[in-house]
Amino acid sequence: MTGKKSGSFENKGIEGLAKDKPVVYNIEDKKGNTLYTGVAKRGRVEDRLKEHLTGGPDPIRGGAKVKITQKASIADAEKAEARAIKRNQPPQNKKGK
Question: Is the pTM of this model over 0.90?
Answer without folding.
Answer: yes
